[in-house]
Amino acid sequence: MIFKDVTVDLRSETKPFKHFFRATGYANADYTYTPPVKRMYDCLASYQGYPLYMRLHNILSLHGKGDYYITREGLDYGNPVINGSGQVDIVVSLDEDGKPVFNWEPVDAVYDIIIGHGMHPIMEAVYMPGCIARSDTEYYLPKTFALWEAVTEAFVKHWINRYGIDEVREWYFEICNEPEQYPLWNEDPSSFFALYDYFEHAIHRIDTRLKVGGPAVKQWEDGQRLYKAFLRHCHDGSNYRTGEYGTRLDFISVHSKGGHPDLVGPSMDYLFNPLREFAAVLGEFPDFAGIEFFNDESDIVWEGNMGISHKSWLNFRNTHYAPGFIGKMIHQYCLILQDELNLNLSIVDSDNCHLPWEKSFFSGNRSQFTPLGPAPCTDFIKKPMFNIFPLLGKLGDERYTGKNNDPEFGTKYGVLATRKEEACYSFLLWNFEDGLSDDVNDRTIRLRLENLDASACYDVLHYRIDGSTSNAYAAWSRMGKPYPLTLEQTALIREKEELELYDAPSCFSGRDSYNAEVHLPLHAVSLLLLVRRSEPAAAGSERAIANAPVLAAEKGVLGNTQVFIRWNFSERPDLAGYYIYRGLGTDDPGVCINKDKPLQCSYCVDMDVSGGQSLSYSVSVVYADGTESGRSPEGVISL
């Protein structure tokens, strides 16, 4: 067995730890208002540290038909034509005088859902509305840049009128998506620069506190070349809109991923080496020092629409390998981009919410969820990948540097140590090397924490994602991968889809140090949470959830009746989970239906119900010290 020692001095200097990983996305904004994706949003918004930013393509060119083109015509990106002739977008049209006219209904349908779930858009200026495109061959350019400016201005003003200036100031406005894909801009990027100049001018003329940037290029040679030219243009090039030198740039975005199905399997070096190159170029422009830096497509590999039917090794997206990769990746962003390269890292978007691409059960596409029935399906299972994000959400907002002189620390295993104020410490422990085999290089991390408050009592919670814990795919595999599933099999898989405690909660007091031995198989990730115990309130004396849960009844894929339950999550740092109480009608106090396993997210499915019943549901919070809050108000539903 391999032992690795890591020491964290809790009185040592800390660094701010921004939760830059609170971002995700998917390909087509038209998917947003479809029933499966709306339910996905309910699930995504169910935990501390949920995604704060959502990045989608084609908000300017919505067709208003939801998932029609993927489900009926098999077009993964959701459009019959992404660009060029035959576009079917319905947001922008031109009147008889050639002036733009707008249909805001599909745009509002998308952004109302995002903002209604407490998230903010990263607004991509892609793709060009068909009616203002220059031609069938130059479909990525406007007829005139003045028309492009007018359309941009109209969109931004509409959003401010609908959502308010304070909300829109939280957004990011990003020019294009991977502009190097257009050959013209590789040969002569001047028209791309003009597109940005008019875009930036239109937005900042409305409000100077709005945030505009780009260029969202890929990690390869063409993207690197356009990236450098774009920075040079913004730094001191001739502004095509104002005639002055330079164009304001509020953030810089790139796309770098850990592999490609046709080139190389998952590799941290493949992801981070291009980021080092992007950083080196940025260093050539000292005036941009401290600018916000994004990798807003930071996936494990490219081509999320490919699954196991294309390449069998893409099955890693179904397993604990994916959360293990992401856990290590987040720590490496701290060690490489923040500590080594001194970048102002603001957004790392794992871009893994492509639920419409996951067309069958565990098909291995880039999605945190897999449908129980044929797509489109509103009843789905959380993959292990989902669970890394509630785990990351438990990290604090200050970061420690662990003491360890081993050259493998940070590359083959690691401890990301954080705190939230003085009351809560959280430690992400991971054991991860490139390569898909799991049965080698187990490691035991011996974690020593020094300079705790010896007068305090600390509760300890240990969460885990590995080959058997917090792992719905492993549960299905142990059954022999049956499909279709029975109700009993579905229920067993649901029991393992949640983030799980690895050990029973414990506590200690009267000590200024703490030692933990955590054995990690390869590709496993754990989180240790130490919460300083305060004076406990009498059990059940206060309500932690103020509102009644929201309930929805629906037939499952096997024809069974089930109830979807969601409620507002608790922000308490000592949250250990939720108990769900179900009663028969409003006069029945009900019984707890998950007493043996508190839920970690404020979303669940109750399959143990029958039609014809009137049911009531309420929720309580379980704290790290084992006490339980009072129950929420009841929600009632008739089946």
UniProtKB/TrEMBL annotation:
Keyword tags: Glycosidase, Hydrolase
Glycosyl hydrolases family 39 N-terminal catalytic domain location: 94-498
GO annotation terms (biological process): carbohydrate metabolic process
GO molecular function: hydrolase activity, hydrolyzing O-glycosyl compounds
Stored SUPFAM superfamilies: (Trans)glycosidases, Glycosyl hydrolase domain
Membrane-spanning parts: none
Family matches, as Gene3D superfamilies: Glycosidases (3.20.20.80), Glycosyl hydrolase domain, family 39 (2.60.40.1500), Immunoglobulins (2.60.40.10)
Active site residues of this protein: 178 (proton donor)
InterPro entries reported in the protein's UniProt record: GH, GH39_cat, Glyco_hydro_39, Glycosyl_Hydrolase_39, Ig-like_fold
One matching Pfam family: Glyco_hydro_39
Family membership: Belongs to the glycosyl hydrolase 39 family.
Record protein name field: Glycosyl hydrolases family 39 N-terminal catalytic domain-containing protein
